[in-house]
Amino acid sequence: MGCGSPEVHLSQPPKREIIRHPKPIYIDMLQNPTYQTPALQINFNKCISCQNCVDLCEFSILKTCDNSFPLVQETRNQKKQMRISLNTSDCISCGQCVIACPTQAISINQSILKLDKTKINIAILSPAVLIAVQEKFGEKFIFSHLITFLKQHNFELFFDASYGVDLVIKEEVNMVIAAKKAQKFIIGSQCSGVCQLIEKQFPQYLTNLSTVKNQYNALSSYIKHVYSQKMQMDPDKFFIVHFTPCLVEKEFKFRKDISKDVDLVISTVELLEFMDQNNFVNTKDINDQFTQNFNSISKFAKQFQVPGYYTELLARQIFSSYSESFDMSQINISSLQKYDRFNQSIKLLSFTSGNFFFTFVIANGAKAVLDVFQMIKNGKLSPDFVECLICNTGCCNGGGMPQKFSFIDIVHRSQQLMANTKLVKTNEDKNPDIEEFYQSSDVQIIKQNYIPYSD
Fold first, then answer.
1. Which of 27, 136, 292, 343 is the most buried (most CB within 10 A)?
2. May I ask the CATH class of domain 1-109?
């Protein structure tokens, strides 16, 4: 029976016009996803037409559609045929719809964590990943426990994604200062969802998008092209796996113009399932650490997944570039707009350094990001740098994180990330390895040029 979707079967053939059963009657049994991107998929067999995803999608990518699609359900009060359609051309794969779906009808397009034992398997771990693991196994769980577990499953080298922030921030500073002198502005590329959004829906801002790779991809390139040389290792034998809360990174994996040094992307949810499948036990007194020389990370880099901290680190580095001392009293922070919806916000951060007056914008949440772009377009906002985070409250609420339907629980994740930062060694001084990196021609490997997205 063709209804605009493959393999539609009737579980029973009721006459729709006389259905009187008060409970939903499901009449189709789709065995495979109807819509699919490299990051997410929709299976209508599980859809109950609650429209949570439609309500949450700020980009209007998810919409209800007419009877060109199979019926979701019929009740005494609802006889209208209704489906959810996904515009895969414009979808940025942020995954907020995955978090909103109560039945997992929209879910992560999972990758198989299958490693080649002949390779040197490398894990890049995001701070937000630890938060989700702590929720499941207790707050005493630390990265050492996770590293020990991954060692037992053929991983050999381990890197904190925060190191990638320290790696790119100096080049970001150079771009912002150069743009300031040219009377232009920069949109940060640390949120992959924003990069996708600009490519697909706001191509007029492509020339404003930072050409610095995000922390994950920059660190991957550094490992394959710099670290391998220092350690006299063959980079062709490296197999780099990102463990991340971000679903967009799963789509970027297929973008060789962006992620050519990444071999596999695993979401936090997939990691937790892998740990369950392999009977993870939280062992006490574990001393395994990140790979040597990659423990020296600035405090604000560790906090990059919380809105505003990447911008604060950028401001600190601008003061440093002009050999000026930094104090938070020199920074004026104001609220431009607040939203009742999911605590989204737009904040302004302004300061003077190097005889320049800088205005930075922090857009927290998809609606805030869209409004900032509209304000810039209408001439109501003239920033020098824009930090955009599609997922409200930052990466701790990324599409690859376990579902949390309470906003209080989501906020607690950010608070826990901040608490974790206080427990690890951070470095307020310049990292000599990164300083050496910037003196070499290798610095080109952390740069990229965005082009309009096409399938």
1. 27
2. alpha beta
